[in-house]
Amino acid sequence: MYKLGIDVGGTNTDAVILDHNLNVVSSIKTHTTKDIESGIDEAIHQVIFQSKIDVNNISEAMLGTTQATNAIVERHNLGRVGVIRIGYPATASILPYTEWPDDITKILSNTYSLVHGGYEFNGDEISTFDDEEIVDVLQSWRGKVDGIAVIGVFSSINNDQEQKVEELAHQILGADIPVSCSSSIGSIGLIGRENATVLNTALFKVIKLVTDGFFNALRQEGITQAKQYLCQNDGTLMSMDYAKSHPILTIGSGPTNSIRGAAYLSKQENALVLDIGGTTSDIGVLVNGFPRESSKSVTVGGIQTNFRMPDILSVGLGGGSIVRRLDDGTVTIGPDSVGYEITDKAKVFGGDIITTTDIAVKLGMCSVGNPELVSDLNDEFAQQAMAKIKEILEDGIDRMKTSSKDVSVILVGGGSIVAPENLNGVAKVYTDQYGGVANAIGATIAQIGGEYEKVYQYVEIERAIAIKDAEKQAELQAIEAGAVSETINTVSIEEVPLSYAPGDTTRVKVKVVGSNH
Questions:
Q1: For 152, phi and psi rounded to 5 degrees?
Q2: pLDDT higher for 314 or 202?
Q3: So what's the pLDDT on residue 10?
Q4: Quick one: which of 94, 136, 192, 478 is 20 to 30 A from 512 by CA?
Q5: Segment (H or E) for 113
Q6: Model confidence over 141-160: pLDDT tens digits?
Q7: Separation of alpha carbons 5 and 18, rounded Å
Q8: DSSP structure string for 116-168
Q9: What is the full DSSP assignment across 348-403?
């Protein structure tokens, strides 16, 4: 049986087929199209044609996509959201949508209500939860919103009020109304978690287009038996049904796919990963085989959130980055890029724009296009440009290192041909013939994941029991995402004491992975 993996980037759409031993059978890199779906169709068609396998033997198909991110950044296909925050009057000083850009607030309808309820950190109610209050709000929103976002104060301790609102929403607005509960979306911190939950609800339309498009693209190639998955932003997979209710978790899946693919190709578990694409270079950190998670809040499309995201540094250097010489003689690289138009606009392909790829070809680092077309480039100019590329990469690597020691770097991505052999601060560089499609490989080899986070008071519950409870909840999430319970293993347990809270209060976060068989 075979696995099919697709990763859609801003410049390229990559596809791979792996056999049951996870060896690469075929790989393809095609240009990302404006409508995305036709690019996915073409990538699937080409990789199957190249492999010459029977499509009935494809058992699993995985997709990593940036469409949710693009929808937020470009403000398209977003739904109208009704926000119910449970925690009145304690939270009334900062209203929902505070500090949101005006354009997206209008699109999402700016509809919200603060209702009584919510919990203190120790589990006590802030104010009495009132079913009738919720019913009145929901009835007034009939026909005005496309989905409901429910956020309770300290719902990470007790989410029963959020679940009650979800139940009432389905009773009053219909069983098919999408509802997002913040306890399953974000981390501790009311506003960041609320923002993530609102975005998740706004993306229900987008994720339906993605899942339907992927299903149709597979069907068009006769792939009807394969189980289908979307990639999460922590380097794991989720089933299509789970993705439909958690679309926000697809954001950031591109860089994590590259990191996981890099780990697989290099057989390394701890290293820096340098993924050079057509427009940017993403630098991530591999810790025990998985991407290091960001400890900072994440801003998406101008909105600050706090859901889990990989710790990634993006710099404006790619294979299509434009190289210029300024009037004072200095050479600049990017940050603008010819992107997916590189085969039309770069000099080695007959265009008239000098890119980093042209520089690499001129210096004999790779053979792409027609080397004759860059013979007129000045040697000194090319050396200056390469020195600038080296400086950008070394600076980025230095910023992601956690010590002054030289580190191992895994070099992947279609633009990796522009990277110099020797980099200061780097002990060893790992490369692979399939590094250009590492992101699609990362999507294909990924396991199904689950993550759970909760605040416990160790004076009231034993530490071992608390951790066991968090593990159990993470396992249930993985099972809901499509994993078989017997295959689930715990990947990491993180404990963070909350010094401002009494009773030895600790935030416990558990990550688990499993397979679907």
A1: -110, 145
A2: 202
A3: 67
A4: 192
A5: strand 111-116
A6: 999 999 999 999 988 778 89
A7: 8
A8: E--B-TTS-BSS---HHHHHHHHHHTTTT-SEEEEEETTTTT--HHHHHHHHH
A9: GGT-SB-BHHHHHHHTTS---S-GGGGTTS-HHHHHHHHHHHHHHHHHHHHHH-SS
User: Side chain identity at 48, as an amino acid letter?
Assistant: I
Q: What distance in Å separates the CA atoms of residue 427 and residue 253, rounded to the nearest whole number?
A: 28
Extract the tokens encoding 22: 């996870």
Q: Are 209 and 168 in contact (CB under 8 A)?
A: no
The residues that bridge with 238 in the sheet, in sequence order, are 230
Residue 96, Cβ density class (10 Å: 0-12 exposed, 13-18 middle, ≥19 buried) = buried
Rounded to an integer, what distance in angstroms lies between the CA atom of residue 205 and that of residue 215?
16
pLDDT band at 439 (very low <50, low <70, confident <90, very high): confident
Q: Which two tokens stand for residue 119?
A: 């919990």
Helices (H), 221-315: 240-245, 253-266
Maximum distance among all Cα pairs of the chain, rounded to whole angstroms = 77
DSSP label at 419? S
Dihedral sign, CA of 222, 228, 232, 237?
negative
Tell me the per-residue pLDDT of 11-66, one tens digit each, with 9 for 90 and over: 778 899 999 888 889 999 887 777 777 888 889 999 999 988 888 999 889 998 87
Instruction: Please state the φ and ψ torsions of residue 450, each to the nearest 5 degrees.
Output: -145, 140
> What is the value of pTM for the model shown?
0.80
Helix, strand or coil, per DSSP, at residue 487: helix
CB neighbour list of residue 93: distance below 8 Å, 6 or more residues apart: none
SS3 205: helix
Q: Which two tokens stand for residue 247?
A: 């679309």
Which of 449, 451, 407, 410 minimizes the C-alpha distance to 425?
Answer: 407
Tell me what pLDDT residue 160 has. 93
Q: How crowded is the C-beta side of 278, counted as CA atoms within 13 Å?
A: 21
Give Cα separations from 439 to 55, 253, 282, 435 (angstroms): 22, 9, 12, 8
- Summarize the confidence of residues 321-328 as an average pLDDT: 88
**Triad 442, 390, 270: Cα angle to 5°:** 35
187 and 216 Cβ atoms separated by less than 8 Å: no
Placement of tokens 């998406």 in the chain:
300
DSSP-based three-state secondary structure for 58 = strand
Paired sense of beta strands 58-64 and 12-18, if any: unpaired
Q: What angle do CA 352, 353, 357 make, to 5 degrees?
A: 120
* Helix, strand or coil, per DSSP, at residue 36: coil
Nearest alpha carbon to residue 142 among 122, 101, 172: 172
Q: How far apart are alpha carbons 48 and 55 in whole angstroms? A: 8
